[in-house]
Design brief:
Strand order of the largest sheet: 5-8-2-1-11-13-14-12
Strand content: 15-25%
Radius of gyration: 17 Å
Distance between the termini: 23 Å
Number of strands: 14
Shape: globular
Order of helices and strands: EHHEHEEHEEEHEEEHEEHHEHE
Length: 260
């Protein structure tokens, strides 16, 4: 599961519907890994500290100062907020970063227009050993999307959708569910009635490079493409709401699958 920062909102109590569903899945015997984002919280933290921020193609430009704030928000504030909420719901939880156990290793990302994104990384290696160990011990891992650089000299800020896709692939997960702030992918971003129910892998690849796939939706669809290209499972992009995961798996989502 990928839980987007835009889906969480600023109110910790708004986490409860998704948290309760995740906890219920674990109690039912499902092996669940949660990868979380945190863009809005990072934006607020940067604003409080007077740090300017910008995005290119949905990816945050991350200089050294921005990386420090990002790591603090993702690994401390948000990760532990989710750990507390899931623990209250009766789950056994372990909050980790993609850096722990070398789970995610990344190399520097180059923007499509050649711009320097700073400490933004593209995952090149995924080691699921730590996550498997936690799952086998009965824990629900909650993963902050930061990766080690090659040689572990510093961290990279990794897009949470991309991190979730890499982890889902490495774990051979049966599904990748991305919870976000919008119900589905839209053919026309200005028309909420233009939602897309299903995309074949071929159609998703064509759509992601088109003008209608903008900003934060592009990394989500790219993550879905990455996962579906490597696995027989399907990827689901859906709105955060009570019962969202079950509803998505029942079809209330944009579904990306190998077959149309």
């Amino acid at each position: 599961m990928k839980y987007g920062g835009n889906g969480m909102g600023a109110d910790p109590d708004a986490l409860d519907p998704v948290i309760d569903e995740l906890a219920g899945l674990q109690r039912a015997g499902q092996a669940v890994v949660l990868v979380h984002g945190g863009g809005p919280d990072i934006d607020r933290a940067l604003l409080r500290q007077g740090v300017q921020t910008s995005r290119i193609a949905g990816l945050r430009v991350t200089d050294a100062e921005t990386l420090e704030v990002t790591e603090a928000v993702l690994c401390a504030t948000l990760n532990k907020r989710l750990v507390r909420a899931l623990t209250r719901s009766g789950s056994r939880v372990a909050g980790v970063s993609g850096q722990d156990g070398g789970t995610l290793v990344a190399t520097k990302t180059q923007a499509s227009d050649g711009s320097d994104l700073g400490f933004v990384g593209t995952v090149i290696e995924t080691d699921p050993a730590l996550l498997f160990a936690l799952l086998h011990a009965g824990f629900l891992p909650v993963v902050a999307p930061l990766a080690l650089s090659n040689g572990a000299s510093h961290a990279y800020n990794v897009n949470a959708d991309a991190a979730a896709a890499a982890i889902a692939d490495a774990l051979d997960a049966s599904a990748l569910v991305m919870l976000t702030g919008v119900p589905r992918v839209l053919r026309d971003p200005s028309d909420p009635l233009s939602s897309i129910h299903r995309l074949s892998l071929h159609d998703a690849i064509a759509f992601v490079d088109g003008p209608a796939c903008r900003d934060g939706m592009r990394p989500k669809l790219n993550a879905a493409i990455t996962y579906v290209s490597a696995r027989s499972g399907s990827a689901y992009i859906c709105a955060t709401k009570p019962g969202a995961i079950a509803a998505a798996l029942d079809g209330d989502a944009t579904i990306v699958a190998n077959a149309s």
